[in-house]
TrEMBL record:
It is a multi-pass membrane protein. The keyword Protein biosynthesis does not apply. Its cofactor is Mg(2+). It catalyses: CDP-N,N-dimethylethanolamine + a 1,2-diacyl-sn-glycerol = a 1,2-diacyl-sn-glycero-3-phospho-N,N-dimethylethanolamine + CMP + H(+). It is found in: Endomembrane system. InterPro entries: CDP-OH_P_trans, CDP-OH_PTrfase_TM_dom, CDP_ALCOHOL_P_TRANSF_CS, CHOPT. Its EC number is 2.7.8.2. The chain crosses the membrane at residues 50-68, 80-99, 172-193, 230-249, 261-283, 289-309, 363-384. GO terms for cellular component: endomembrane system; membrane. This is diacylglycerol cholinephosphotransferase. One of its GO terms (molecular function) is diacylglycerol cholinephosphotransferase activity. The lineage of its organism: Eukaryota, Fungi, Dikarya, Basidiomycota, Agaricomycotina. Pfam families: CDP-OH_P_transf (PF01066). PROSITE patterns: CDP_ALCOHOL_P_TRANSF.
Length: 427
């Protein structure tokens, strides 16, 4: 195989998705809707087609926002986006959540549940994560700011934690309040509010909004803007998720008689990769320009998001193939070289060697975006090819049963060996 080690391929047959969702909202409100919604889709539609359709809606929302605000400025910067754009983002994200929720149901309806769907679903989620951070920050009137960077950091950390937890426990655990359910719905509401009142609404102080400015003691607290308050709330959410995820991992390790501290070391890859990006982004002012205050901010975040998607994609692949945890990613070297070059002015009398002017900075950032995209596209293509070739399935084609009830797959070979009836039953 091109990407998955030969000895790990057999583990694909052993993989079975396990998930726990403790959300009352999901159980009593959303799941009945999803159960009905999936029946609207013909059995001829592959689950991965539904997943990709949902992500395509988000891409359309992203392109629309950048069409009206190409330099990614907020209203403070003089750009006013039409209200319908925010409403479309609200509807689009809700549709993405719905499509993302029913692809598994469609997989069970069509007999296509398996590791390929898990990989494809999480891969789309990883890309959507960064796109929604950028869109939500614009809707919250944050724009180019360290709050947006903090939001990117917190959101990616939550995703990494969930994937790290699933790797060690063998199941995807969603608590009573989780990002894929309540978190997404919060963003849906934020888009809708921005559509009604405009992004500037989020600059209102939280005490002023709650009419607490005249309440003794409480009025001594800082009247943080609503958008900043939302970021603070997110920080507490990350802290809660860290301890909740580790508690689940610790329980799983104890049940297996393994070390409960070793898994903590596997959080370091995210810390290292995020630190490199922050080091690059926080470079000193040189030639009167910094990434945070330039139109390169969005492509920089997108490149970071694609590198992250590659990182967690390898984690998910390790999970479904029962392979060792991926510690290293070669894209770190690329970003580190760029970060060190941008920070050379920290040394008195030194200037960047590569990013010497705005043109070169633009070239480096967009080249990083292109290389990050190419690396992730290569990973997705090779993994999909490996899994489909080995298991005798197709990514976007529904398998059918013959008159004997045996699944007839679209690819007639498994790792170069003809697939027989007994193998098809296993698949």
């Amino acid at each position: 195989m091109a990407f998955i080690p030969q000895d790990a391929l057999q583990n694909l047959h052993k993989y079975a998705y396990k998930g726990v969702d403790k959300s009352p909202l999901s159980k009593y409100v959303l799941n009945p809707f999803w159960t009905w919604f999936v029946t609207l889709w013909p059995l001829s539609v592959a689950p991965n087609t539904i997943t990709l359709s949902g992500l395509s809606i988000v891409f359309l929302n992203f392109a629309t926002v950048l069409l009206y605000d190409p330099a990614y400025l907020t209203e403070k910067g003089g750009v006013v986006i039409p209200s319908w754009v925010y409403f479309s983002c609200s509807i689009g994200l809700f549709m993405y959540q719905s499509f993302d929720a029913i692809d598994g149901k469609q997989a069970r309806r069509t007999g296509m549940a398996g590791p390929l769907g898990e990989m494809f679903d999480h891969g789309c989620d990883a890309m959507n994560t960064t796109l929604e951070v950028i869109l939500a920050a614009q809707a919250l009137n944050l724009g180019r700011s360290w709050w947006t960077v903090a939001s990117q950091m917190a959101t990616l950390a939550n995703f990494y934690l969930t994937t790290w937890e699933e790797y060690h426990t063998g199941e995807l655990y969603l608590g009573v309040f989780s990002g894929p359910v309540e978190g997404i719905l919060m963003i849906v509401v934020i888009y809708a509010i921005s559509g009604v009142y405009g992004p500037s609404f989020w600059d209102t102080g939280i005490l002023s909004f709650l009419r607490l400015t005249n309440v003794p003691l409480i009025n001594q607290l800082p009247d943080l803007p609503l958008n900043d308050s939302f970021m603070v709330f997110g920080a507490f959410g990350v802290a809660f998720n860290v301890q909740a995820s580790y508690r689940n991992v610790r329980r799983a390790m104890l049940s297996k008689g393994k070390s409960t501290t070793w898994p903590l070391l596997l959080l370091l890859p995210f810390v290292v990769s995020a630190a490199i990006q922050l080091f690059w982004l926080s470079h000193p002012r040189y030639d009167d320009a910094v990434l945070l205050n330039s139109a390169l901010f969005v492509p920089f975040l997108c490149a970071w998001g694609l590198q992250f998607a590659h990182q967690v994609g390898r984690m998910i692949l390790a999970h479904v193939t029962s392979s060792p945890f991926p510690w290293w990613d070669w894209m770190w070297v690329w970003s580190l070289v760029a970060a060190v070059d941008a920070n050379l002015p920290l040394i008195p009398g030194r200037a960047p060697l590569i990013q010497t002017n705005e043109t070169n900075r633009t070239l480096v950032v967009y080249l990083t975006l292109a290389v990050s995209f190419a690396a992730y596209a290569r990973f997705c293509t090779l993994v999909i090819n490996d899994i489909t070739n080995f298991m005798g399935i197709a990514c976007f084609t529904v398998r059918k049963k013959d008159k004997n009830g045996v699944w007839q797959d679209t690819t007639p070979t498994t790792a170069g060996v003809a697939v027989g009836p007994d193998d098809k039953k296993k698949l």
